[in-house]
Amino acid sequence: MLLKKTIWMNSHEGFLCLSLVGLICDILKNLILYFKKSDHYCMSNKSVTIHELANLAGVSIASVSRALNGKPGISDTLRARILSLSEEINYQPNVMARQLISGKTPVVALCMPPSPYEFSDRPYFVHLYQALTLYLHRKGLVPVLFAYENIDQVFSQASSAILLGATEDDRPEIFDRQKFPYVTLETGVGASVVIDEANGVYKLTHYLFKKGRKNMLFLGENIDISTSQGRLRGYRKAINELGLQEHFNNVSRQISSSLSAYRQMMKLFQSSEPFPYDAIICANDELAVGVIQAAEDAGYKVPEDLSVTGFDDLPRFSNKITTIHQDIPKIAEAAVSLLSEQLDGFPPRVIEVMTRLVSRESA
Amino acid sequence: MLLKKTIWMNSHEGFLCLSLVGLICDILKNLILYFKKSDHYCMSNKSVTIHELANLAGVSIASVSRALNGKPGISDTLRARILSLSEEINYQPNVMARQLISGKTPVVALCMPPSPYEFSDRPYFVHLYQALTLYLHRKGLVPVLFAYENIDQVFSQASSAILLGATEDDRPEIFDRQKFPYVTLETGVGASVVIDEANGVYKLTHYLFKKGRKNMLFLGENIDISTSQGRLRGYRKAINELGLQEHFNNVSRQISSSLSAYRQMMKLFQSSEPFPYDAIICANDELAVGVIQAAEDAGYKVPEDLSVTGFDDLPRFSNKITTIHQDIPKIAEAAVSLLSEQLDGFPPRVIEVMTRLVSRESA
DNA sequence: AAGGTTTACGTTAACGTTAAAAGCATGAGT
DNA sequence: ACTCATGCTTTTAACGTTAACGTAAACCTT
User: Which residue is nearest to nucleotide C20 (CA to C1')?
Assistant: First the structure.
């Protein structure tokens, strides 16, 4: 039943009415969207199926399947014909059907730490995401993001998981109990990728010694962070070997790493004349940036008067810094290998990824 | 045929042999892994199926399906019985079968920009990832990471896409041609979420004026970045309305935002006595951190002598800064709504997310 | 040359789910 | 008593793919 009625109104009322109609439309749309909540998906491009391809080629679907999957039991000529035809009509095998029949899922869960606080201001992690995404796709795997809040969904949706930002004692026992394959970074427990950070700084310290540096200061931040600790350890080992005096300084990363480093250095430059150090080994590139700027502003020449080194070699900071390069693609590759190994039944193990000294202008 | 032979060797040879065996084992393992490359997936936990559940309940699979999906045509008692039994045996419906039968995929592609350069050092994006992940999961959608390098795979694997870090002129025409639903951020073209940044700074400027500030400096960075431009626009509008003098200063973000801001402010503090400004409006929180630190070091009191404001309200920086809060969960929600609307046939539109002034200690 | 083995293909049954169709009681209307 | 509708349940047919199985023909073996 339709309401049919003419309403007279003046222009003011008309405007009111129009905006009212707009409002009602909005409400209705939201209502529709609200109730269609289980139907948010889209038709997957209903592409050409294996049946149509088989029809066009005049063969059975089995032959097509064999041709496409490189399975034996088909003549080379037919295989070639099917493959070229498949190219021609741009056939894309249905991912869901494949998964259903095989009972396998290519989904790898990428689990983000509960609070992105620590996470978000380490650009290193974003680069790692990028590298993992590229590498997983190349392997035919699908990287799906998970927040720790819905970690229980990981089991039913993924085949394995990469835990970013997990700590040694904060690993999910659920995964262990269910024998669910997963990899952590920098924990060294279970299947884990660790970076030989200590060794990197160790090599770096020796490198500086060879360049004639004798009074090296290690500048770290928030020493409770495990990575900073490893880097300090490498410095200490080298310093002890070389019979030099150990100098350690720690700034807070509460605010901004480079600013903290800058102010700390400025204080040192002003308080102690002559300046007692000939090299500053920074726990990361951001600190190094601050140190170099401070040296410049205080009238010291880098690297002539003072060598400055960083760690990470992230593109934003380190175009001129002598630093330790982290091979992020290799780290991603190692993580995926560890998953594969576990899926193939091998026991979890630790892969150590090597770092590389990159000599640039600052040291 | 087994080789059976006793070999005598001395301990040195024995050690050599053992490490050789280890080496060979390693090579073999790598070979296995290499050739099994197409089989990286895992058996999806072969959980209980709808059939077993139906058997246990003594009913048909159709009734179970109806009960689980809240469809009508089933008695309340049976529905309750099936649901409780399903809980009991922890039945998880098979995602792949569901997708296959429905022809729909819940996959939403999250596309990362080609170079994470600009991307990685904006913590804001990481928070957005987190928010998007949470919200998509709540909606039953699956966030899958894609690099721009394999953007062509998006079509066959996802139902829609969220493009992070896309610019106005750098949007993929492929998506438009294929009528593939997608959302961009901050471009304002097609389906897009924009933040009323200009308005945020506009309100902030008025707020400072009400507090008695008359000489306000806007401190931006790399003005070519679109966000900085919008923020500057808001400042200009308010300043003109208030009949005040416009003051604009731009620092390079090449190095570190807060350090650049710190040095710039120090220069200003030292060069001009008395200091001409009573408020610094920073384009983001990082800059504000540097400004506040500089003021403190130069002996100025914040906010008594100098008001300092930021933008973004990211947890790391802004615990004490008066700033403009970006409602990241709301931005995520808006993006997903825009996708849903397009999937439901509505035309793409722009949603503007409002910002909010958060008054804290610095102004 | 008779038998077995390999090769190349076709047929068909899964995989777990949903939805349409069909069955089947029960009750009401004629 | 017969039809018809109704509410609940089962049966069955899809969805697109893979793999096990069948069936010929061709290719060896003795």
Answer: B62
